[in-house]
Specification:
The chain is an alpha/beta fold and 260 residues long. The protein has nine helices and twelve strands. Strand 6 (108-111), helix 4 and strand 7 (139-142) form a beta-alpha-beta unit. It comes from Pseudomonas oryzihabitans.
Length: 260
């Protein structure tokens, strides 16, 4: 019942297919036969026979720590990414008169989820010094995906969104109309990229083999690596992602525990 699925980036279709191919290539290199994986992300992440998945660093730090093993972090070749780090782009419509974060007070914010590092945690950290221990945004809209947040901005239903640089770049490269009419107001601080994970029961040798299989699969298929814009993966440990909780703590200490 071994399962593997890399389903954090599912748009555009060529990217979704490329992540599927990468998961299958890794399994093939390791001699594993894959069964259908759960579509529900929490069920996938905690599957007892998980070979490989990708998660957001914030759910790992707040819910998954101890339930899965970290394997590696991808190194993306996109603007806003360096080594195994990325950032979020704080975006607004081109028509919005705002020159900095302070101008967003009382505006409508779209975020992909309340457990998102790039969509929520990094934006909360950026806004906390300005919130003055009170509500900052006029309305919070949970869009359920970064792509939906972009659409809400374009449709005039939201004024600001914090969007993962990788998601933004995948869409800008293949479907530039989906980011048209938006401008970058500010980048967030850098943050570790979304980690690859495996089941908690897997050994150190298993983790090393997975890491090598990821790098070897990407090196063996440059066209696949180009679609994913991944040049390779880097070993990570728990300290890499526990820094995300430091940023939550800093927001709490400034009287802004919940983005609002």
């Amino acid at each position: 019942m071994t399962v593997a699925a890399l389903t954090m980036y599912v748009e555009p279709a060529e990217v979704r297919d490329a992540y599927r191919q990468l998961a299958e290539a890794v399994a093939l290199r390791l001699g594993e036969t894959l069964d259908p994986a759960p579509e529900d992300l929490p069920a996938l992440w905690t599957h007892p026979e998980l070979l490989l998945a990708q998660t957001c660093g914030y759910p790992w730090a707040t819910r998954l720590r101890g339930q899965v093993r970290l394997v590696a972090a991808p190194r993306y070749r996109f603007e806003g990414c360096q080594a195994a780090e990325h950032c979020a782009f704080i975006l607004v419509p081109e028509t919005l008169e705002a020159t900095g974060l302070a101008d967003l007070r009382g505006k409508r914010a779209a975020l992909n989820g309340l457990d998102s590092n790039t969509g929520m945690n990094l934006l909360r950290h950026a806004v906390a010094p300005l919130a003055e221990r009170a509500r900052f945004f006029g309305e919070m809209i949970v869009s359920e995906s970064h792509a939906n947040s972009l659409a809400l901005l374009q449709q005039g239903h939201a004024d600001v969104a914090s969007v993962d640089a990788v998601t933004y770049s995948y869409l800008q490269r293949a479907q530039p109309e989906r980011v048209a009419g938006l401008r970058l107001l500010q980048r967030t601080r850098p943050s570790p990229t979304l980690p690859f994970i495996t089941a908690a029961s897997r050994s150190d040798a298993d983790v090393e083999a997975l890491r090598a299989a990821l790098n070897d699969s990407l090196a063996a298929d440059p066209a696949l690596a180009d679609i994913l814009a991944i040049e390779g993966v880097t070993a990570v440990d728990e300290t890499t992602y526990l820094t995300l909780l430091d940023w939550r703590r800093e927001a709490v200490e400034q009287g802004y525990p919940v983005i609002a």
